[in-house]
Amino acid sequence: MTYITMGERIEAARKSKGLSASQLARRVGVKVSTMNNWESDRSEPRANKLVALAGVLSVNMIWLLEGSDDNSSLPPNVEVVETADLQSKINRLQSMHERMVQLLFEISSEVNRVQRGIKEDQAEQDAEQL
C-alpha cells in the first residue's frame, strides 16, 4: 500500500508495531497532541524527532520523509547489522528509562514517608512541651 503523506506513513508504521499514539508519543518524547498533529499532517516532526520516530518504529528515515524505500542514497557502509545494533541500544535505553522512572517513584514515596514521620515527631514534641 502506498502512503501519500508523512502522517499516513507514521500512523501505518505505528500500527504495524502495535503501538498506540500515546505509547509512541511517550517513546519519542512528545505530547500525544503533537503525535496526533503529525499523523493528521497538521505539522511535521523536527529532524531530531524524525530520527527518534524512525528508530522506535524500525523504519527507514527516507521512507518516513518521502515514502520511498530506496536505500541507494544511503552510504554503502550502512548495513542492517548497524541499524539492528542501534535499535538494540534504543531498546536498552527505553528499559533503563522505565527502571529510572520506577526508582524515582520509589524514592519520592520514601521521601514523603520520611517527611510525614518528621512532621509527626515534631507535632508530638510540640504537644509534650505544652
Automatic annotation (TrEMBL):
Transmembrane segments: none annotated. Residues 10-64 form the HTH cro/C1-type domain. GO terms for molecular function: DNA binding. It comes from the Bacteria. InterPro entries: Cro/C1-type_HTH, Lambda_DNA-bd_dom_sf. The keyword Transcription regulation applies. Keywords: DNA-binding, Transcription, Transcription regulation. Pfam families: HTH_3. This is HTH cro/C1-type domain-containing protein.
